[in-house]
Design brief:
Elements (H helix, E strand, L loop, with lengths): L8 E3 L4 E5 L2 E5 L6 E3 L6 E3 L2 E8 L2 E9 L7 E9 L2 E10 L2 E10 L1 E8 L7 E8 L2 E7 L6 E8 L5 E9 L7 E10 L9
Antiparallel strand pairs: 1-6, 2-3, 3-16, 4-5, 6-15, 7-12, 7-16, 8-9, 8-15, 9-10, 10-11, 12-13, 13-14
């Protein structure tokens, strides 16, 4: 397992970020996002993404917290092959609530939302790659179990960039923190406990 955020690379560095005791604190830039075409008709590729390349199959996890206040404030995990092929998964603020949000982009973006319980301690998120399948989960704080959210197609490749992302499409200054980031061997392919 690799867990050193300090050794990772920024795509679109935020105006403010600090690493302290293994936790990354970020304040977003103005009107940042990752999105391609669908429904809204625009392309945005200016969100903040701190990553490292990861080869083959893997599982990546992080605990994310944020000061979600404005529509589409978001923070979570991302994996990226290119500007046209990526997945982001995390908490996103919409309609006055924080949801678990997943965007899968294969040339064009799609978006899915799942209501999750609010937790001041943040939410643990996991992305797992098994060849062309990406498994997206979060851990329920109340019972400690991983909840399945999505099983998505993603093109196979020798490696992809994996790390943490945050965006604030409607403002600047959204504050998020990321802790206990790990990327390593994939969990079992068994989907059901």
């Amino acid at each position: 397992m690799m867990s050193d955020l300090a050794g990772m690379t920024w795509l679109n560095p935020p105006p403010h970020h600090a690493l302290s005791d293994g936790t990354l604190h970020v304040r977003t830039g103005k009107e940042t996002d990752f999105w391609r075409e669908t429904f809204y008709g625009f392309r945005r590729d200016n969100g903040h993404f701190l990553y490292r390349p990861v080869a083959g199959d893997f599982s990546a996890e992080v605990t994310v917290k944020g000061d979600y206040k404005v529509l589409y404030d978001q923070a979570g995990l991302m994996m990226r092959l290119s500007e046209t092929h990526w997945i982001k998964a995390g908490i996103e603020y919409t309609d006055g609530l924080a949801y678990f949000s997943v965007v899968v982009t294969n040339d064009r973006s799609d978006w899915s939302l799942v209501a999750v319980p609010a937790d001041r301690d943040g939410l643990r998120i996991r992305l797992t790659r098994h060849a062309e399948a990406i498994r997206i989960q979060y851990r329920d704080v109340a019972d400690g179990h991983w909840k399945p959210v999505r099983l998505a197609y993603f093109p196979t490749s020798q490696s992809v960039d994996v790390g943490v992302m945050c965006c604030s499409p409607q403002r600047e200054g959204f504050e998020a923190s990321f802790s206990d980031f790990v990327a390593g061997p994939p969990i079992s392919r068994e989907l059901h406990d």
